[in-house]
Amino acid sequence: MEPDIVVEMVRENNAKGIKTSTIIGDDDSTTISRLKREVDPQIEKLSDMNHVKKNLANHLYTLQKIHRTLSVKVIRYIQKCWNYMIAQNVGNPDGVSVGLDAMSKHPFGDHSSCGDWCAHIKNPNTKFKSLPYGKCLTDQGLQTSLSELFSRYKDHCQKLAEMGSTQANESLNMTISSKAPKRYHFSGSASLNYRVAAGVAQKNIGHGYITKFTMLNVKVRTSELHLLFNQQVNTRTGLSPGVYTHKISLLRDLQHRKRKAIANTRQAKRKRIELKARKLQSNALHEKREGTTYSSEVGLVEQIPSPRYMPSRDPVEFSPETHIPAYFDLETTGLGRTSHITQMAAVVGKEEFSCFVFPREQISKEASRLTGITIKNGKMYHLNKEVEAKTISVAVQSLLNFLSKFEKKVLIVGHNVQLFDCPVFLNSLYSCNRIKDASEIVDGFLDTLSLFKLIKPGLSSYRQEYLCNSLISLSYDAHDARGDVVALQKLVEQQGVRFDSTEAKSSSFTFQYAIDSHAYSKEVNANLPSLQILISQKVISVGMAKKIAGSGLKYEHLLQAFKRNQTEGLFDLCQEQYKSSVRVTKSKKVIEKMINYFAKLSES
Length: 604
Fold this sequence. Notes:
52% of the residues lie in helices and 13% in strands.
């Protein structure tokens, strides 16, 4: 279709007296051969610099499959050097020839073919800002391949020095597409000619064409487009544009000139380059996450999941008019966060709530020794006295009923509540399907362990029993939920703690943060076992493994990313950005250790 259109256009121009001597396009020879055969054998063709650049990129990405060190960052640097070389040698084929030599030498620290543009000639210690680690490349195999690639371009130095650009055509296409969008079938409408003509008029004289003239016809004369207008048509049809149409056309032209002026500044160009780099990285990352999307048995390939990030902690905005503190404590079957509840208690003001809960798992010996809670023959005992125990669903609902009757948002106050009581409590809420009900009652949590570390620094211990004994001279039986919450209430009230103070806010967190942290912890626990092999081989630390697991990645996902792109797969995956944070880490050392591990694994 393209050759047909070009031949028809040039032939019509020739018939109207417009002589076409040169065309600019890609390196497809079909169009120019047909033009010379059917229209004018003297017509010449220039290569489009953007098409040449794309062809170079295709060659570089083909080499990337052979050379691991040819990363996307290195390819972009070579493309940038190419653009500079072409721009500096317009009309100078000898300069292009020398520049092609420098293309395979300069990135590797050999500046024998560089000109005065190269800062490394004056200062050999100058960093390569756009190359990894700011150092020159050292892969000799890659240098040989690049030298062979650019040597093939040496046969076309004359053509490279006389390239043209089709950007003006693309600009006109954009203007016309605003009048005749491609998503609509205007080619079957009589309005298409008028829409195209309106686009041409806007390109030539700006938005003011609406108010200056009404276009009747478009006539091509010599090398310019001249429009025949009838200024009285608007008046005759009663459609004469008014004052506001004139104002908006002037405004649009002014905005266009401003955008054009800004687009030519150094800052705007740099911003466009950065934006393009981010888009390319994002697209590449999505491709690596999705893998092959069109092939046989593609449905059997597991996709790499979207990133999960560690939630940011939000403090509770406590107000005495809208909030009320509820002192809270749990006793459990063990010390793990997945332990089952055996007793729960809460105190709000002078009202108390306490109940024993029959657990669904065995109580550990250590937990029984500390709490005095045991189970014998299907009955629960506390300090060898039989007690009435509720099921977890009944106990949770009873607690929520107790907290809801105060008609204020509840701030749950507990000692070490963030690391222990809160995760255990959330497990019970999820198991009973009461998470939504709880979110409507509880606004957040306050950890008194963190609070007293702030308001009473330097103490030898921050256990609740020690704080009560040393600060308010209160001794009590610990590890009984009811006794613990009563003692905690006395400790906080006698110390005059204000829940709207800076220290209290920094020790608090919202209920939503608790939910997000709970989900993040579950993700870590689900994915961490698969990463044990990397920990045991000392490829990554335990802390890094938790970061990887928390981001939603398993060992299999890391291996898939490596197989899909050995040079950039893991870098893009681990450095995937969200706002100001990354998915896993920016550390090149950590990522390269994983790449080396998988590379050795694939070789064996």
